[in-house]
Amino acid sequence: MSPEWIERQKPPRLERRLAFEDYEGTRHFLEQAAELSEHSGIHPDISFGRTYVNITLHAEEGAQALSQAQRDFARALDTLAPTQEDA
Amino acid sequence: MSPEWIERQKPPRLERRLAFEDYEGTRHFLEQAAELSEHSGIHPDISFGRTYVNITLHAEEGAQALSQAQRDFARALDTLAPTQEDA
Q1: A44 within domain boundaries
Q2: Which of A43, A54, A73 best tests the B interface by mutation, with the highest count of B CBs <10 A?
Q3: H or E element that contains A1
Q4: How does residue B82 score in pLDDT terms, banded at 50, 70 and 90?
């Protein structure tokens, strides 16, 4: 998993911020992430604007830690992230 | 403009929360909103999860109020919102 992910506790979650050069890049990433959510059934909390996306993966209700499936989802998002985040 | 919009000051902004029955509805709304942003060049701050979308339209840098174009954007989003918000 990319070192860009920040793991926090209380509540247990993974957070990552991505920056994009333009809205086109932001929108393309969000569409791919939506596909991933549709297939995996994992729905992070996402906030975005023209050239940024913040992702928060919360542990499931009552769980003390993130599941393997959520960590795999985070890794899958890493493959979609812009390689050179220099927005 | 729908009464669901809340206008706030400091900083001047319009906020609205939408609820959806399922992720498919959420995703469809977000795709249509993205089209609107692409054509209008107006990019609200949006946060979403599986069945909710929060929209914030901030006044432009240095402006004391929202522009007519931003209010028109809010009205356009109203036409995309689910009519029966009973998620």
Answers
A1: yes
A2: A43
A3: none
A4: confident
